[in-house]
């Protein structure tokens, strides 16, 4: 045999590969992969608060570093001892804003916000929601103060 396969065998093998590969991929929970980084960020919930452990989030080691705490919340290090927590949902139409350098940008309609959530470019008219944070340097944690209704 010359090692060549017929067109019919090629199509059969290709179809089998698509079926087997599709079945394998359908068993993977994509949400679990997407939330892995965010899940690592949260140490625990204490009442209504969310506590983030800095030692598990290297991106927060330096000023300007950030981490997604959950689907709608980002924690940003503003200075050695100051952090800000911002809800990353555009106040215009509810799209997820993205951190681009030193501002948040809405990919849907172009609204822009400062790191503190203040609108700098419309069509959004309202600022992003922010939450009070408390840094505990002894424990190496940041507590995000959140009302129960705001926890994702």
Sum up the overall morphology in one term: elongated
Terminal Cα span: 62 Å
The portion of residues assigned to helices is 10-25%
Which structural class matches the secondary elements? alpha+beta
Radius of gyration computed on alpha carbons: 22 Å
Count the DSSP helices. Answer: 2
The overall average pLDDT, rounded, is 78
How much of the sequence is in beta strands?
A: 25-35%
Characterize the structure shown.
The chain is an alpha+beta fold and 152 residues long. It has one domain: Rieske [2Fe-2S] iron-sulphur domain (Rieske Iron-sulfur Protein, 3-layer Sandwich), CATH 2.102.10.10. Helices cover 21% and strands 31% of the residues. It is built from two helices and twelve strands. The protein has helices spanning 7-26, 30-41; strands spanning 42-46, 49-53, 66-70, 73-77, 83-87, 98-100, 103-105, 112-114, 119-121, 130-131, 133-136, 141-144. A four-stranded antiparallel sheet has the order 1-2-12-11. The longest helix is centred in the N-terminal third of the chain and has 20 residues, at 7-26. It is elongated and about 70 Å long.
Considering the chains and any ligands shown, give keywords for the structure:
single chain, Rieske Iron-sulfur Protein, alpha+beta
Short overview:
With 152 residues, the chain is of the alpha+beta class. Helices cover 21% and strands 31% of the residues. It has one domain (37-150): Rieske [2Fe-2S] iron-sulphur domain (Rieske Iron-sulfur Protein), CATH 2.102.10.
